[in-house]
């Protein structure tokens, strides 16, 4: 009789295990820890390069504004001139690279790194006047100049 009870208990446990297995197969799978849909964008090929960050920018492609031939138009004398804005450009000078006889400065502006050389325009009205290994000089819209020293130094 004891063996019959053991057999009955073993059969009950086997049925319970089978029922648990079937219930687990029907249940919704738990969410994965990694969203695989975010891992590959598009067909998996990287986007085309915009430009090589280690090469200097080409000379400014913006053409100079041309005015029509003839006498220069007279400015309105009665309107008071508004004072131009103060020097408001905020950049961080990270360092420089010497390449092909030119010194290219690396600046951080608005969370983005830009490479600039002498004569480049960082922002509308703000032009780089000089670049050295220690500092960069920027001229503002009113002709005022400001020197930004290199921030930080690696050992």
Can you give a write-up of this model?
- It is built from 1 helix and 7 strands, in the order αβββββββ.
- The protein is an alpha+beta fold.
- The strands form 2 sheets. The chain has a 4-stranded antiparallel sheet, with no helix packed on it.
- β1 and β2 form a beta hairpin.
- The termini are far apart.
Nearest-integer average pLDDT: 78
Rg from C-alpha positions? 35 Å
Distance between the termini: 84 Å
The appropriate CATH architecture of the domain at 88-155 is Roll
Coarse morphology: rod-shaped
Parts with pLDDT < 50 across at least 5 consecutive residues: none
Q: What keyword list fits this structure?
A:
155 residues, alpha+beta, SH3 type barrels, three-stranded antiparallel β-sheet, 1 helix, 26% strand, rod-shaped
Concise account of the structure shown:
With 155 residues, the protein is α+β, with helices and mostly antiparallel strands. It is rod-shaped, with a radius of gyration of 35 Å.
How do the helices and strands line up, and which of them pair or pack?
Layout: H1 2-26, E1 92-99, E2 102-109, E3 112-116, E4 121-123, E5 126-131, E6 135-139, E7 145-149
């Amino acid at each position: 009789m004891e063996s019959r009870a053991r057999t009955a208990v073993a059969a009950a446990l086997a049925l319970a295990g089978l029922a648990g297995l079937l219930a687990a197969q029907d249940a919704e799978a738990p969410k994965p820890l990694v969203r695989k849909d975010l891992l590959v964008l598009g067909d998996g090929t990287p986007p085309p390069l915009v430009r090589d960050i280690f090469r200097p920018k080409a000379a400014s492609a913006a053409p100079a504004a041309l005015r029509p031939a003839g006498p220069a138009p007279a400015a309105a004398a009665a309107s008071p001139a508004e004072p131009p804005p103060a020097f408001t450009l905020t950049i961080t000078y990270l360092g420089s690279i010497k390449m092909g006889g030119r010194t290219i400065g690396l600046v951080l502006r608005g969370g983005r790194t830009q490479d600039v050389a002498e004569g480049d325009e960082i922002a509308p009205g703000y032009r780089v006047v000089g670049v050295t290994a220690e500092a960069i000089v920027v001229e503002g819209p009113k002709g005022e100049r400001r020197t930004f020293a290199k921030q930080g130094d690696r050992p």
